[in-house]
Design brief:
Blueprint lengths: L7 E5 L2 E5 L5 E4 L14 H23 L6 E10 L7 E12 L4 H15 L1 H7 L3 E10 L1
Parallel strand pairs: 5-6
Antiparallel strand pairs: 1-2, 2-3, 4-5
């Protein structure tokens, strides 16, 4: 069974530095309102970035295999937090935006759906605690 370990070190005030098994690191912080310096990523927002990154890697890896011609691609993830503590995302919208001059809707839908249903482990984790909906937007030039 595969495992991942990260080490997160307190730097100052509310700032932490966290490493990644790949050797890269990020800063985690909060706003001055909560005692931070606003010098890093927020933990909950990072979860949304992880979701987008996981699914995005899946989709891009399928571009060549499916001979998909896409000029640009972005994912916008919006999470709605609960009102009560501990606050967590209970509703999440993942919007896939594809840009190009001759986008193949059928292949793009297939690539996104393979990520959503089969490959993206972060998406599966989110489904354990949130209502996740997705949308695909094609922007033909």
């Amino acid at each position: 069974m595969a495992t991942n370990t990260v080490t997160t070190v307190w730097k100052e005030n509310m700032q932490f530095e966290s490493d990644n098994p790949s050797g890269h690191s990020i800063l985690i912080d909060t706003s001055a309102e909560y005692g931070g310096n606003d010098s890093g990523l927020r933990p909950k927002a990072m979860m949304l970035s992880s979701l987008a990154g996981c699914s995005g890697l899946d989709v891009v890896s399928l571009f060549d295999k499916m001979r998909l011609d896409v000029d640009d691609f972005k994912i916008v993830v919006t999470g709605e937090l609960t009102e009560e503590h501990p606050k967590y995302y209970h509703k999440v919208l993942v919007e896939y935006h594809f840009y190009g001059s001759d986008l193949d809707e059928k292949k793009i839908n297939k690539a996104v759906n393979l990520s959503i249903e089969k490959y993206c482990g972060v998406m599966e984790m989110f489904r354990k605690f949130a209502d996740v909906t997705t949308a695909i937007h094609l922007h033909n030039n």
